[in-house]
Amino acid sequence: MNSLTRYIIKRILISLLVIVLAGVFAFCVIRFVPGDPIRAMIGSDADEAAVEAARRSLNLDKPILTQMQLWFGNLLKGNLGRSLVLNDSINNIFAARIPTTLSLSIPAFTIAIIFGIFFGTVCATHRGSMIDQILTVYIAGTNGVPIFWLAILMMNFFGTRLGWLPVLGYVKPSEDLGQWFLHAVMPVALISLQPLAAVARQVRTNMLEVIGQDYIRTARAYGVSETRIKYEYALRNALIPVITVVALQVPTIIGGSMLIEVCFSIAGMGRLIMTSVSNTDYLVIQALVLFISVVVVLCNLLLDIVYGLIDPRIRLSSGGK
Amino acid sequence: MRKSKKWLSVLTAVVLAGSALAGCSGGGSSQPAQSSPAAEDAAEKTEEAEAPRDILETQAAATKGQEIMEGGSVTIACSTDCSNVAAWRVRSPYERLNWSGIYEPLFRMNDDGTVKGHLATSLDADYDNLTYTIHLREDVNFSDNSPLDADVVVWNLENFKENSQSSATHFSKVESFEKVDDYTVAIHLAEWTSQMPFSLADVAGLMYSKKAFDENGYDWCMENPVGTGPYVLDQWVKDEYKTLVRNENYWNRDAMGHLDSYTIRVVADQTAAENALKAGEIDGYYNGNTMFENTMLAQGYQEFSNTARYNAYFIVFASGVESSPLNDAKVRQAIAYAIDAQAICDSLGFGIDTFSGQYAALGSPFYVDGINNYEYNVEKAKELLAEAGYPDGFSTTIYTGNEMHVNDYMVVLQSYLKDIGIDVKLEYADNAEWSGTIMYEIPEGMIFMSHGFDNNIINQAYSNFALQNEGNGMLNKCKIVPDDMKAALDGAMSAPDTDTMMAEWRTAARLLFDDYCLAYTIAHTKGSRVLCNDRIVDEGWITTPCNYMNFSNIGVCK
């Protein structure tokens, strides 16, 4: 077994352990919340008989260890449970919403990476110029501006005043690609803002560091073109640490999509997080905590594998031969 | 270059400052926020209270008198989707909005608090035999063409009793349901209740197709509404929108809906709703908060509100401790006098809320004339406190559930009571704990809460003030239940006819809100209202005394 394979297997096993621990955490943390979750879910005016029936239907009348056993048993069968508030299987709820969120998050993520790398490179290669100054202001400003405030401004300007873009809702790309694009422009732009700034800042910093290295000076001395030096020598080496930053934008995009989906009334996973917390829909919250943990763990696993592929020093130092 | 750097530095500073200001505003937190300027304003008002306003006063409709166009469609938005679909599961105002075009009740309310037939023709009350008899129309069918007859009604009522989350509220005294003949149903009671007509005019009287149930099963019915109403569900994207289209099989051809279709859209954020209204993407927004209502009314939008349903903000006094000052009626009355409820309505309620001092709002058939509503009078409050033996005041606690919109009220109450020497500690219970807290855990103090009322007000008052350690009764450790008040509430609940019921209720209300001052209502806000653009014409769609909309009576103006 070569070092890369050993490295990947080790990372996968660690990730599985983290997912199991995340599941235990998700299960336990909900049960430490004070108050009666059933009354919180079905309403304080519900009859006592209805409350007890709901409690039995969710196995909440059983001992904690039995509940955990049942939940993990169902998880292994792919059953996330049922939401009393939404009156639907959590599997169905997720299945309906994940594609919506992905159709916004993936474009946002892609835009953030592409334009983040581009802006960062431009800033680094035109250091001190007007364009560097402008982009630096944008990067700094984006981090401080609340995304929901920008959403309201954009909604008001592009939607209400100009009438260029719809204010609310979502259309699946499979139904009407043109309408999907119109509905997705503002949400995708807003979700991508902060990750784009983070990537751009990191690329700029790394590029400036790499450009100052001896081998870059040597390449120039050998007559290599400036364009090739920037994009073949400098950028490739500058991107290795950027991979970490890119992976760290996944939680940012999840958080961004929460606010944006509420603002634009898009029924995705982000809005599900908000509504399940405000409705104290404990079982959905439990499933969401696990889901988000799995997404983050998988992104980190992917990151580790990419690192191992790109840089042999990393997989060798992790115990490979 | 130096000049451009300077300008860019200034620009950066402006952007960051603007971000900091924007970031510091709005948002919610789990901890109670500091009081708002409106709350401070309310606390400072000392002017004479105006005469109480009728809650039925609504914004004059821009489209009043306009002719309705046949056809067309409207989009009404609300903040949340509904999860309950089957008729026997409908409870919340949002579920009523969503399904009132599909399900119809057996009876509807009149302005004077009596019921009139809708799917039924009449309701006979036989006090001696503990029986209500429903006489059904013989021409009603569901959208799947199955008829509404006695078998179907009995099945619906039994289903509601068995499976509804509010079964005990409506059918706790019911022993059985019986088919008398094809179009007559008898409800046999274990104990008489005067509230059955109101229940049958509300969610307990909604009818679902038994044929659909028999063919498709319980789980299918929980996802698919099949009723007798003028509309049927065409499309539903959960948590986004649902579209309802005209029911071509509607039994009441004289009351076919004007609209070809309507859409209920979910818009959680009220700023987004405001933008959507202005952009024309929605025609109305249901149950926005008072601030939203005030903003949109000021911009010329119109409001339609239900005349049966309102939310009340009120204080209930609790005293399970013998030495508690709240045991003394004079102390409770002093507290009521010390609160300028009209100022609170004018500031926190933006002048839209109204004040009556009792559970029923002015204009409700259950409002009782002549009850002292404790108009703001600090000197009177101090005088009563001194008579009760507390000239220097005392300390107490106000409990409430931890919701943002009540925080301003709590702070204002604290401020008013401080003026008469009462030190109030504010206790916020987490939402998940609030039910348990309010029912079993408060030993002494006051609770502040908001609650929706409609034509079940007697039932609600009975549950709040007469029941103790029974089911959903509140303040079970510390309720003050004077014998004469309980007797009047018992009398209202078990009255053989409407006149007796109202007479007993008037006695109970006087004792409850006036003589004993066990509760004090600070504000009423309309519980079911829609802010609309000027396309919509309401001829009794939401402006109805029934806590259930009638989608036959809404249209688009020509």
| Total count of strands of chain A | 2
Distance between the termini of chain A: 9 Å
What is the H/E order of chain A? Answer: HHHHEEHHHHHHHHH
Strand order of the largest sheet of chain B: 9-10-11-2-12-19-13
For the record, what CATH class of the largest domain in chain A applies? Answer: Mainly Alpha
What is the 3D shape of chain A?
globular
Q: Multimeric state of these chains?
A: heterodimer
CATH superfamily of the largest domain in chain B: Dipeptide-binding Protein, Domain 3
Ranges of chain A where pLDDT stays below 50 over 5 or more residues in a row are: none
| Rounded mean pLDDT score of chain B | 85
Low-confidence stretches of chain B: 22-35, 42-53, 55-62
Radius of gyration of chain A: 24 Å
Q: What's the N-to-C terminus distance of chain B?
A: 63 Å
CATH superfamily of the largest domain in chain A: MetI-like
Commentary on this structure:
The complex is a heterodimer of chains A (321) and B (558). Chain A is built from 13 helices and two strands. Chain A has 321 residues and is an all-alpha fold. Chain A folds into two domains: 126 residues, no CATH class; 185 residues, MetI-like fold (Orthogonal Bundle). In chain A, strands 1-2 form a two-stranded antiparallel ribbon. The longest helix of chain A has 38 residues. The mean pLDDT of chain A is 84. The longest helix of chain B has 23 residues. In chain B, strand 3 and strand 4 form a beta hairpin. Chains A and B meet through helix 2, helix 3, helix 6, helix 7 and helix 11 of A and helix 1, helix 5, helix 9 and helix 15 of B.
